[in-house]
Amino acid sequence: MPQNPFSDLTLTRRSLFRAGAATAVALGSGALLAGTAAAAEELPASPYFDITALSSDLFRSKMLHESHHVMQGFAFDNVNRRLFIVQAQNGTSGDDLCISQLSFSGELLGSMHLNHSGHGVSLGVEPVGTASYIWMECDADGTTTESRGTALARFKFVNGGTPAVKKFLTGSKNITCATDPVYQRMVVRRDEGGRMWFSLFPLAKAVAGDFSEPLAHFPQPSLSPGGVVFQGYTILGSSLYILDGAGHADAADIDSYVTRVDMKTGEVKERAITRAGESLVWREPEGMAVYRTADGETRLFLGFGSRSSVDNVNRYANLFYKNVLVG
Fold it and tell me: Per DSSP, what are the bridge partners of residue 113?
């Protein structure tokens, strides 16, 4: 396990909040405080995934709506039992995204476009009755594959429809989010002063546009070993999970890692290489999500992009999961 990146700092949850107390910035429909003296409620410790456990397949080599672009972030509607995956649109400059709805066997069920939105590293889903509301970045800061969102969009998924978007935290830099379907929370990741930070909120408050009292707020920790190409994240309870690594044609070059972070302190608790789907052609880690089955099994999902051959233009989605909880 790597050295704790915060070992030289005596960081408690409250000291993490105090660290940026003077830098509160009003953004769009809510105020996200870069540091506050205390949170509205405590963040209790919760069970966490054993990230060293073996991974199981959900599906492999499934094509999304856009055939020529790799999958990015994905998320589940845990109430209506739906899966959504985001990727870039075919034939565009790179910042126009497509959300595909898939069955749990990987069958394409529908799609929706959100133009000029960013890269799609991560997204969240909010069930509202029988509807699924997507949370993802929007208002990209450019028109290429390097562009990133400057606000969060919330809209109802309607197959083939045009999103009716409500925007939050406008004026941000490199902002994305992920949702916790078990504890009903949202984590926001964005650039604050040149460094990426995570902020945790009750989902109900985020829906109301209230980002003033995060349950946790901490900088993205340093990650090593590995190439540390950031590829996705998700949350369950008091833990944040990060997926990083590059794409490789040879399984011997695999450098993809899963990291568990305690959101109460911002400390890295565990980091382990993952070889899920190591036989895939040009396997590249892409996205994370949490799902709880109808039978009550909680799963940590890892996404990987692949190709049928190194030179083939088509890209495929692959999902794997870990289901061993500790505590």
Answer: 98
